[in-house]
Amino acid sequence: MPIAPRVLLSIDYEPWFALFRHYDGLSDPDQRRALDGGFTLRALDPILEQLGNAKASVFLVGEIAGWYPEVPQKIVAAGHELGLHCHIHRPLKNVDELAQDLRASAHWLRQYNVRGYRAPMVGISEAAYPLLEANGFIYSSSMYAPAGLLLQRGNVWEIPVSTTNPRIHAQYAAPRDFTFKLLLHGEFPYGSSFSIGLVGGQILRIIERELKRGLSPSIILHPYELVKPPASARLTRDLVLHPHLLPFLRDKSGFLKTLLRNFPVSPLGMYLDEMLKTRVSYLPYAERPEGVT
Fold first, then answer.
1. Buried-most residue among 10, 74, 166, 234 (CB within 10 A)?
2. What is the pTM of this model?
3. Average of pLDDT values for 65-83?
4. In whole angstroms, what is the distance from residue 98 CA to residue 250 CA?
5. Which residues pair with 218 in a beta bridge?
6. Domain residue spans in the chain?
7. Pair 260, 237: CB distance under 8 Å
């Protein structure tokens, strides 16, 4: 029996400065915490209030758990799924760097029995999946692909962030991040918060259409899109130098409110549990529409 379609709602819970690649090399933890300025702690309660009774997957940057241990505690206490985004936000397609990053968050991952992973910038390599499996992850959501796909990599399942269906047959091997190549193949990554910042109203219509087809689209939001970070000369300068990132900082609290009012949502882990209970025979590295037996 097919499972009920729903929006797979996730929040990549990261500091505001994770948007800008020139902070990737900043290794001093005190400087990184000072840059955050308490934003990721202050933003949590308003975001939980916006979510209300709806439940989401919150993929947390591990250093935030170190700065503010109450953040993962509050997320779990509110009934949301806690996942790992990374320990320090930067590209992590190199397996050795990923292994080091996973070790840095190992304590709280065990403490909260974390099962899900989302790579920074939704960018992962095929070589990462055995490492995720060895570290106890059950699923990843680290590539872009059409809604309705559930991809198997060993004992790790990949739940892609949603795109529209491609015009041509596509290969669903990592990396599949937000690139012009993806767009040229006819896949619009509507699950990206960048896209939501550009055409949020159109994306709500796409989501409605996907749900009517029996699919469960997966989308991403960020804390700085739901709660405005404090204005600063540094943030202003960064945006002047990188204006293409402005859609990420567009207020999406209205989008979230409309989404929750009109569509059912759930965490990714809950969706995966229900899908696996249907005993659908998924083939490794292959795709199969939801609900097909």
1. 10
2. 0.92
3. 97
4. 30
5. 8
6. 7-277
7. no
